[in-house]
Design goal:
By secondary structure, this protein is an alpha+beta fold. It contains 13 helices and 37 strands. Helix 3 packs across helix 13.
């Protein structure tokens, strides 16, 4: 175990500089508040300007973590080699047709970054549009963002982030010459949407607080300084996003928070101002697609929770009068059947639904209303749909995997119901699905709920209460963790681990209610669900009670911090990646990028005293106390705009000051990356190998 590995006798100690504030009559003392660089926004753009005193703390922590983990260096190299060996180095995606071309991404042998390519639709020579490896050369961090070709296929609007701070810059490439034009559009969010005539594109710009709040139109061949603002929101609690609708005629400008949304139609054929579909209403969510002729008129097809449709329904509205008074049910609400997403083509409505915690695809012929379902037999699996580029098509592309079955990409003919397997994920080092077993369990929670748990283990691993386990959880924002295939986790499972995904409240595995009951005042349900699931695995003699490691990232890192405070006795180790652990201080600071929109997820402790006390009662940083904690590994990114680097740094510093044990407590900050860690596909595996080596060491499997 790491406890028995020689390490520097004195862990780092961070200087205390108490900052005192009073909120709602409560005195808050933050002895490590100084780790937040007052110039943090500049650090996001240029990490070199970080306060030297803060950099020294992070570098000292990195050196200590490296020293403690040094005895596992050979294991980390072995894990990295295993995980890399399961990746097909010259892998390529399935080409997606669009008019005369088919577009796809691929990697070359040894390449870290994707190549964006196309070939003639019916066969011919490949054209490399972007070479990610060449673009990344010499950069400490590089990530290609969305790349969108123009409707006439002559230009490519591509974006990249070279800091990890999610400030993407968009450039234009002439696909005939392979050269970039002079157009450079900085600090954009998401991809672009082209006008129908390919002379301009729309994009969302980040404001001075890293919030996506404005939509601009850029004309090809002009300077970004002259771009026209065509839409904005001044409400700091709402973000703006932009997407092209499947018909190609319109784009949707969505203004949304975690509870409400409104949509604006943007005509891509004319430069008219966007038009509102339905005014914003509290707790009303909706998103739109367009059909030019459904029932004899152009309509919008809308997924919405209107009229108490908590698990969502699909309605239609005339394009000319799209307001709520004209919404008519197309697919009525069915409680317990959660409509995850949908797509609309000329003849088909495609729905991705989840019922009884399992996804399925429903195909509906628009002309007749006839429906059929695509489903699978495994106990737990992942399913997704890819709408592609084209509107007039009978082909639906979907992907399927499970925790034992590598990802498969299928083309499905909605008319004939014939399936064509386009790609099955290759595992070059070998993978036998029959050597593994996946199960779906339901763990009883203290309040009578049952919590879904997806399990993966080798078939020959004895499930008799002796196996170590990694328990993964998230439980926030209505995001579900799919029971999908992962080559990396096999390195744990092949060493006798049971890998368990706890689908805790805060996700939508059991419908929107499951999300609602894991947010705001109900947030502690997420923590209780994971604890209950862990205890159930022990009680059922599936895993060993003293050999469990819990793992989570971002909002799932908050979960890990809460588990550390609530049940440190239940876990041998905890892995917290970019952990959101300083919840109260972050929600009290409305200048941070995500704080105002996040109040609907966690509560507004500035104006709502009850929310203040609720958050303070579970916020991991605020509840660190003098007790024994398990071994902990925290991973952070210096330029992370979502969970700022100082959150895990402060958390680890306070844990060191108060904990009563001598278990390893490690902080490793990637000084060249942000929320997602290293961007290269192999470079990222080094970070996974570090986390897995830690897990193996603390359960004595190193």
């Amino acid at each position: 175990m790491l406890d028995r590995i020689p390490r520097p006798p004195v862990p780092p100690r961070v200087t205390e500089q108490p900052a005192v504030t009073v909120r709602h009559g409560v005195t808050l003392v933050d002895e490590f508040a100084w780790l937040r660089d007052p110039n943090w926004q500049a650090v996001m753009r240029d990490p070199a300007v970080l306060d030297p005193a803060i950099r020294a703390v992070l570098e000292t922590e990195n050196a200590y973590a490296d020293a403690v983990m040094a005895p596992t260096a050979a294991l980390q190299d072995t894990l990295f080699a295993e995980m890399k060996g399961r990746i097909k180095e010259d892998d390529a995606g399935v080409p997606a047709p669009d008019g005369p071309w088919a577009y796809y991404a691929r990697h070359r042998v040894g390449g870290e970054h994707p190549l964006i390519c196309r070939t003639p639709r019916h066969g011919g020579d490949e054209q490399i549009l972007l070479d990610g490896d060449a673009l990344a050369d010499g950069k400490a961090f590089f990530q290609i963002g969305p790349a969108t070709h123009s409707p006439d296929h002559r230009l490519l609007a591509w974006s990249a982030d070279d800091r990890g701070s999610e400030f993407f810059t968009t450039r234009l490439r002439d696909l005939a010459t392979g050269q970039d034009l002079a157009d450079i559009v900085p600090e954009v969010s998401g991809g672009v949407v082209w006008t129908s005539d390919s002379t301009a594109f729309y994009y969302v710009r980040l404001d001075e607080r890293h919030r996506p709040t404005k939509v601009f139109r850029h004309h090809v061949g002009t300077a970004a300084e002259t771009d026209e603002e065509i839409f904005r929101t001044d409400d700091p609690g709402f973000f703006v996003s932009l997407s092209r609708l499947q018909s190609g005629r319109f784009a949707e400008i969505s203004v949304h928070d975690h509870e409400s949304a409104e949509a604006w139609l943007l005509d891509l054929a004319t430069p008219a101002a966007p038009t509102l579909v339905a005014p914003r209403e509290t707790s009303l969510r909706y998103e739109i697609e367009h059909h030019p002729d459904l029932g004899g008129e152009p309509v919008l097809v809308i997924r919405t929770n209107a009229d108490d449709a908590e698990d969502f329904k699909i309605v239609t509205a005339p394009l000319a009068t799209p307001g709520r008074a004209h919404w008519r049910d197309l697919v009525p609400h069915r409680p317990g059947v959660f409509v995850l997403g949908y797509g609309v083509t000329a003849d088909w409505l495609i729905r991705l639904e989840r019922s009884e915690s399992l996804p399925r695809i429903v195909v509906r012929r628009l002309a007749t209303g006839e429906e059929h379902t695509i489903a699978f037999d495994e106990e737990a699996y992942s399913l997704g749909i890819d709408p592609g580029y084209e509107f007039a098509t009978d082909t639906l592309r979907f992907n399927y995997s499970s925790m034992t079955t590598p990802t498969e990409v299928w083309d499905y003919d909605c008319a004939t119901r014939a399936r064509v397997l386009r790609k099955r994920q290759e595992v070059p080092s070998g993978h036998d699905p029959a050597a593994y077993v996946t199960r779906r369990l339901f763990a009883p929670a203290p309040d009578g709920e049952t919590v879904p748990v997806s399990l993966l283990a080798r078939r020959d691993t004895p499930l008799d209460g002796t196996a170590p386990a990694l328990v993964y959880g998230y439980g926030a924002y209505g995001m579900s963790i799919p029971a999908a295939f992962s080559t990396a986790r096999l390195s744990l499972v092949d060493r006798g681990f049971v890998y368990a995904i706890v689908h805790a409240r805060g996700g939508t595995e059991k419908g929107w209610r499951w999300y609602r009951e894991g947010k705001l005042t109900f947030k502690p349900n997420t923590f209780r669900d994971v604890i209950a699931a862990t205890e159930h695995l022990v009680a059922a003699r599936i895993v060993a009670p003293d050999r469990i490691v819990a793992h989570g990232g971002s909002a799932g890192g908050m979960l890990i911090g809460a588990l550390a405070n609530l049940r440190p006795d239940l876990y041998a180790g905890l892995i917290a990646e970019v952990p959101f652990v300083d919840v109260l201080n972050t929600m009290l600071d409305e200048t941070l990028p995500l704080t105002p929109p996040e109040w609907l997820e966690w509560g507004d402790p500035i104006r709502d005293e009850a929310a203040f006390h609720t958050i303070r009662a579970y916020s991991p940083y605020d509840n660190v106390r003098a007790q024994a904690y398990p071994a902990i590994l925290a991973l952070a990114g210096l330029t992370d705009p979502r969970v700022t680097y100082w959150e895990p740094a402060k958390w680890v510093a306070r844990l060191r000051r108060l904990k009563t044990d001598d278990h390893p407590l490690l902080l490793r900050t990637n000084l060249d990356a942000g929320h997602g860690g290293a961007a290269g596909r192999f470079e990222r595996l080094r970070e996974v190998a570090l986390a897995y080596a830690f897990a193996l060491a603390v359960v004595d499997r190193a």
